[in-house]
Amino acid sequence: MKNAEHASPQAAPAPLLEIDNVTLQYKTSEHLVTAAQDVSFNVYPSDRYILLGPSGCGKSTLLKAIGGYMKPVNGSIRLKGVEVREPSPERMMVFQEFDQLLPWKTVRQNVEFALIASGCWRRSNIDPPRRSKFDPGRDAAFLSSSCG
Predict the structure, then answer these.
(1) Cα 139 to Cα 39, 48, 113, 131, distances in angstroms
(2) In sequence order, what DSSP letters do the residues of 87-100 get, joined into one string?
(3) Residue pair 13/44 in contact by the 8 Å Cβ criterion
(4) Which of 4, 22, 23, 67 is the most buried (most CB within 10 A)?
(5) What do you get for the CA distance between the two ends of the chain, in Å?
(6) Which strand (E) or helix (H) includes residue 26?
(7) What residues form DSSP beta bridges with 74?
(8) How many Å apart are CA 62 and CA 36, to the nearest integer?
(9) Long-range contacts of 82-89 (CB under 8 A, 24+ apart)
(10) Residues in a beta bridge with 19
(11) Please, what's the b/e burial string for 67-96 (b: 16 or more CB within 10 A of its CB; e: otherwise)?
(12) Max intra-chain CA distance, the chain
């Protein structure tokens, strides 16, 4: 028999992020808005996942829930197998709203500022190579590995 026949099947990796049947709602002065309804997906280690859709379809609302800033009215959100119930220093978010960014800083400087302010990154310990362009995939992976 060949070795391949004796090899045990490899277990599928556990999802890094699990969105399971999530419904998100919020109130405005006039309405109850259902921003996302019955959304389910998994993100596995080394996946690149994009939330793409028109304005108002629930992308930012879903990200706020993943960050722990909103609770689903239905379903669950798990990060590394642990249910997300509130914000945590393990998860950091930089939103695009102008009032949450420092307009005189670059994108990279805004992200670095958040990491330094949270104590997650100390410039003296880790100094990424400077590049002329910010690469979200490469630089996010660096920043993620810097935070544990």
Answers:
(1) 28, 13, 15, 10
(2) --TT-------GGG
(3) yes
(4) 22
(5) 44
(6) strand 17-27
(7) 23
(8) 7
(9) 89/118, 89/119, 89/120
(10) 41, 77
(11) bbebebeebebbbeeeebeeeeeeebeeee
(12) 70
Q: Which residue do the tokens 């003296």 mark?
A: 124
Quickly tell me which residue has 């590394």 as its tokens. 80
Tokens of residue 138, six digits: 């490469």
Query: Quick one: tokens of 114?
Result: 């958040």
**Other C-beta atoms lying within 10 Å of the C-beta of residue 126:** 13
State the pTM of this model: 0.62
**b/e burial code for range 14-46 (CB count within 10 A of at least 16 → b):** ebbbbbbebebbeeeeeeeeebbeebeeeeeee
Q: C-alpha 11: how far from its chain's center?
A: 25
Q: What is the rounded CA–CA span in Å between residue 65 and residue 38?
A: 14
pLDDT digits (tens, 9 = 90+) for 14-67: 999 999 999 999 999 999 999 999 999 999 998 888 888 888 899 989 999 999
pLDDT tens, 92-112?
776 666 566 787 888 888 778
- Calpha distance 79→64 (Å, rounded): 14
* 3-class DSSP assignment, residue 50: coil
Q: Structure tokens of 87?
A: 């914000």
